[in-house]
Amino acid sequence: MHPGVRWIYREETLDRAAQLMRELDVGALPVSDQNERLCGIVTDRDIVVKCVAMGHDPADTRCAELCEGTPRWIDANADVSEALHEMESHQIKRLPVIENKKLVGMISEAEVARHLTDDQVAEFAEHVYAR
């Protein structure tokens, strides 16, 4: 898990999200509501493909507009197999880690690659990318 993850509020603009991603050197941000509850995740790719490439202005587009579906997350007390199962079964590359309803970290495909065996990484990639 990568600790120290920051939220972006759902009503912030995508240009602010892009600036924050640059400052933090990350490619994704969890999106929260006013109560710091997870609404979804916005990625750098989302900003390009779902906003800029569609002719929309990131300065006028809110993060909430890109959040789709039910946000997936894992409890901080979950073990590695639970996290992998969640990521594989929903074909997601990033998984927010929540403790006591607060964001405490993020598991990304980079963490998976760094901390698992080659066989486990291969199985993860097969499930997340091959479908």
TrEMBL record:
Task: List, alphabetically, the Pfam families matched.
Answer: CBS
Ranges for the CBS domain? 1-58, 66-123
Q: Which PROSITE patterns match?
A: CBS
Superkingdom of the source? Bacteria
| The keyword Cell cycle is assigned to this record | no
Matching entries from Gene3D superfamilies are given as: CBS-domain
Q: Which UniProt keywords apply?
A: CBS domain
Matching entries from InterPro entries are given as:
CBS_dom, CBS_dom_sf, Diverse_CBS-Domain
Identify the PANTHER family for this entry.
CBS DOMAIN-CONTAINING PROTEIN (PTHR43080:SF2), CBS DOMAIN-CONTAINING PROTEIN CBSX3, MITOCHONDRIAL (PTHR43080)
Name listed for the protein in its UniProt record:
CBS domain-containing protein
What organism is recorded for this protein?
Streptomyces silvisoli
